[in-house]
């Protein structure tokens, strides 16, 4: 009876992989034991079949013989038609005819015939096309298999392939891949060509692209690879530190926080809304997404192809008035023509936690510190304070049998023991991201579509804040004819953010939580007679948060762009960009009616609205932005002369409107609508609009790619200025010399591969100022304070003075630098710049007080920023096949006020001529007074430390020699004992980014930091009792263990901080003793990933599968107290650190 093996040719798709593994094991066994195998039997057989499939022939052979035939279905063509007409021949002849043309052989093992691939070993050497040198670490892979080899130190390889039909693919980072059919060849030498990099790289610039070799301005480009695999919510966080002198500032760590951007330091003046004083501002660059202005932080990072940063004015000049302080150009991903559809799904599951938590004192420490303070001033603590300390200790020891308060008459004395940062802040908060993209194209059309979702919870344990963002993008390109192409791009983003409302008077949530360790979140259930009702609001910030106050934002933005391109002749293009951006923002704030139990208790007042009043506020804003670009360019090559010209027209129009209403006194918390409020209802609205028009040009010339010249410019008109002062021409010019192309450099060309000197000079106008500055504007009052006819009518405030001659601020920048490449691996880019902003709109000269009006805003200021940018990159492949890229970015700047007319007396409290932005004025500290004798010998410092000076107080140095510590007149000419003791501007910002890959593993380590920064801590919550106006006044806050445990006592004479007591606020005035070093080094990103070999992925119906783990802000090294994050020193929401797991699959 013949043995059948039907599953060999009837394997289901589900079982295929498993059985192939079993078959592979059997074939391995066959190869080991084949020396013991018998030859083909001596039996003879006859078979006469024509035009039958191999599969049918196998069945027939098994039927007429005693053999079972064993084979791998992935190595044999079962559908191939064969003719077998033989009579009385050995089985070997039949098998030879069966397998003819399939590069297969067969062998008999007992009663089984095993079909397998013919053995074919291929060897060879892989070399570089440019140098002829052998290449190390090149991957040699037999396509559609996991069979691979790697070239050794001599560039040699050896690989055994399955058949003559095998295709070998040679790949190496930095080189074009190469594929070859093996055929009958046993030796295949391959020459790989490098991918154009560095100087041959194409960089996106204004209204076009340029070869990096021909750039004469300061331009940096970041690719999608550098932005990938980072657990961040927006592009700003991912960009931080990657580009020198692109300053990315995170205001706080809230889920919806949007980083701010600045290029190269101070740009202009701006009035501080908190104190009304003018200060140096670090203005934002002009940010364009596919040629249209948009907040880059709203984009899905997965959709970005590249980001170009135009740092110098000559590169930005083509964008005119919107680009006075640099440009960021974002290019999104597009589909490729003639590419089958690729579907990619990726996700990231992330866990976040604060980088720093305050080490606040507990209730016992706060009360003990108060009692100790009495002793430090030679007094005895009152009995009621000692009683409260006993009560606090009793509750802390046994909270089940003691209340967290007791009554003193109608007053509640709190003695709880709450740590708000443990109770109100989550140890870890989850977030997740999901992205789905599909891209591809045919001969005439290409497409890229993506959908992204981000969902993140905030850190608060009560009434948790929640953020969600949806992104949708569709980019389509169509080659209508050989000379006409249309690109269409659409982008839609929606964000929602819900968070608790902060009560007035308590500051930001993060700060407010440190104020109340003795006050429970909720009233306890066990209360004595005539005591507060349980579970009511206690006044603790967490109690307020828990009671449901809510602020919800719902924002949407839609961006549509159509870009037709005509090419009437070779090298001549006519292009246009027509775009529309619509923004819709809604906000609803509800502060509900709360019953209070705060300080005093009276049962009759339980209906009192603590929020006084509760209220509902709704706001709806919308904005529309229209952009039209029309331009044409032409390229001409005449022998060694290369010319390029571009001219164009731009028009932008922006309209916005806002409508809001507020209703006070909520009637029912369950129905939070304005119509159901009992108090005053206040509506308000606003509208605004502006427009610009401009004509722009770019002309470039180079001779042999050696001598480079470029001119950019723009004539701009803006509605923000008077009609006779709206237009102005802003030109720029830049030159370059590729020294390495000169004959005299040939001797070192192997070392200094390329070297280019460049310089630029340009002026740009700045129209990023308030609307209607040249028009007198009125301000309405809801109700005046006088009665007319028994009512209080609406009032109008007369306008202030205006200057009808205001015009453009002008930023003029000179930039010199070089670009160098060494041994084709090391690139260095350096720029030094000097930017001067003139005609800054700010306060003019002071007018006599008798005028009765303030001076109008005028073009009166001058500001200068100087600094440098440095970028160093290293790309290499080791002899072991390890690929590694290292990138260093370093920058610094200094901003100086050259002219400010609003401060003729040169007061130090605002801008003054000669001021360096960030300078910290303060006193020099001698030390801390240890005894009365030192105090008697010291200077009189009552002017800054009023009251009695005692041991434990700070001893200041008398710098002006008058035996009195004072600030003089607090002016530049008379500053008393003050001096510049530091500077708060971050100096020497740096980053070190490293990418390593070995076979299928990759590793990214990204370090970022600041080399120098001074910070004086003026936060009363940090200082605690030392900031109190008196011993019993609690204005300073709770305080930190760092200060409390390191404050002066007679037993701690060498302590850093002064005596922990109130009544001497001067102890913490700005001074050298408490000037902290806020420089830091941070492990910004760490990620490790593994990519499944392509052949393995293809076996499970995938093109690519990658898994990775990453971390963000994992480690920080700084001299700043742990109460603060050195990156954002005064945040009202903690900066986050994260760990994440992610998956990426491409089909």
Can you characterise this structure?
- By secondary structure, the protein is mainly beta.
- Among the domains are: 6-117, Phage tail protein beta-alpha-beta fold (3-Layer(bab) Sandwich); 120-192, Immunoglobulin-like, CATH 2.60.40; 212-342, Ferric Hydroxamate Uptake Protein, Chain A, domain 1 (Beta Complex); 363-415, no CATH class.
- Helix content is 10%, strand content 45%.
- The chain has 15 helices and 55 strands.
- The chain has a 22-stranded antiparallel β-barrel.
- The protein starts with 12 loop residues before the first helix and ends with a strand.
- The model is unreliable at 1-40, 525-530 and 598-610 (pLDDT under 50).
- It comes from Niabella soli DSM 19437.
- This is TonB-linked outer membrane protein.
- Its main location: membrane.
- Residues 67-118 form the Secretin/TonB short N-terminal domain.
- It is found in: Cell outer membrane.
Task: Summarize the structure in short.
By secondary structure, the protein is mainly β.
